[in-house]
Amino acid sequence: MFSEKIRALRKERYLTQAEVAAEVGLSARGYQDLELGAKPRYDALLHIADFYDVSVDWLMDRTDDPHAHR
Predict the structure, then answer these.
(1) 3-state SS assignment for residue 16
(2) Global pTM?
């Protein structure tokens, strides 16, 4: 699930929600909402995938390979 994946990625890197939000162009609350299960907008999804260096397909559970179709 998207929210679980971005939470795990953030914690692996020892980042706060506010730090990631600033890097991907979201408000802290906007990023927090994504970790709580909100669906991302297309542009936010692309920025998050780029920031974490993973594929959009992996974030959206379309593949098990985090680097597929990058």
Answers:
(1) coil
(2) 0.89
